[in-house]
């Protein structure tokens, strides 16, 4: 087991990537991932029968996932659950966020190629606008995968007390992976999947028992926060 100096968590390895490989790495990820066009969500008991909260999915920051592309199955699932979903192609401001209940930002980038590894995706004004919007009652779902996506989201995450390692996460313990250190398994049996309304659901049919991820990055959170997937 190797330990990283970047975090007190045990059992993971955070690795940096030489900038020369940045363009190749991002291109490889893009080539490997695409939306499942055959996915047709079924929601037996929608959270909202009609006119649910408005969910905005950010599409203005070189986002790897957008409502009409790689996050289309996610957007469809939300719509079947009664939410209204729109892509947001504008700068993040109080005006552009007005009326929204949830803002989803998935894998934003501040630049293309090697510069993506050290360029924030959001301006200081955008960070302040989102922070004030959340303080006023909005809900932010911020997704940042392994490098280089941590660099893009780091300034926004820091505004909410979340630290991003901006590397890659692996776990070499056999009980915590699916035969590959980058295939991370979080289960109730290994104690790495936390109890929370998100993981327990409204009833047994919605209860989550196993989550498996592919690498990603490690995070640090402020006291009082809940880590759903622990390392």
- DSSP strand count: 8
Query: What order do the SSEs take from the amino end to the carboxyl end, as H and E?
Result: HEHEHEHEHEEHEE
Mean pLDDT: 87
Structural class: alpha/beta
Based on CA atoms alone, the radius of gyration comes out at 18 Å
Please give a structural write-up:
- The two termini are 13 Å apart.
- The longest helix has 12 residues, at 124-135.
- This protein is of the alpha/beta class.
- The chain has six helices and eight strands.
- It has two domains: 1-16 and 167-231, no CATH class; 23-161, Rossmann fold.
- Helices cover 22% and strands 15% of the residues.
Short description:
This protein has helices at residues 22-32, 72-80, 94-97, 124-135, 149-158, 197-200, and strands at 54-58, 84-88, 102-106, 139-143, 163-164, 183-187, 210-214, 219-220. The protein is an alpha/beta fold.
Annotation keywords:
two-stranded antiparallel ribbon; alpha/beta
Task: List strands and helices in order, with pairings.
Elements: H1 22-32, E1 54-58, H2 72-80, E2 84-88, H3 94-97, E3 102-106, H4 124-135, E4 139-143, H5 149-158, E5 163-164, E6 183-187, H6 197-200, E7 210-214, E8 219-220
Parallel strand pairs: 1-2, 1-3, 3-4
Antiparallel strand pairs: 5-8, 6-7
């Amino acid at each position: 087991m190797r330990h990283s100096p970047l975090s007190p968590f045990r059992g993971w390895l955070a690795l940096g990537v030489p900038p020369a490989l940045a363009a190749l790495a991002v291109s490889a990820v893009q080539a490997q991932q695409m939306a499942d066009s055959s996915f047709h969500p079924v929601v037996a008991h929608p959270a909202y029968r009609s006119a649910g909260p408005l969910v905005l999915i950010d599409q203005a920051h070189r986002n790897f996932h957008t409502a009409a592309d790689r996050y289309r199955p996610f957007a469809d699932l939300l719509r079947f659950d009664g939410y209204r979903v729109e892509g947001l192609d504008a700068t993040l401001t109080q005006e552009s966020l007005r009326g929204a209940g949830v803002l989803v930002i998935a894998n934003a980038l501040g630049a293309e190629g090697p510069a993506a590894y050290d360029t924030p995706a959001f301006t200081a004004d955008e960070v302040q606008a989102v922070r004030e919007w959340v303080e006023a009652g909005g809900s932010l779902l911020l997704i940042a995968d392994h490098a280089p996506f941590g660099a893009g989201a780091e300034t926004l995450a820091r505004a909410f007390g979340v630290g991003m390692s901006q590397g890659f996460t692996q776990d070499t313990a056999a009980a915590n992976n699916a035969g590959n250190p980058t295939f991370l398994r979080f289960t109730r049996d290994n104690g790495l999947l936390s109890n929370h309304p998100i993981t327990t659901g409204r009833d047994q049919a919605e209860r989550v028992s196993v989550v498996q991820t592919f690498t990603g990055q490690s995070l640090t959170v402020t006291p009082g926060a809940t880590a759903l997937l622990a390392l």
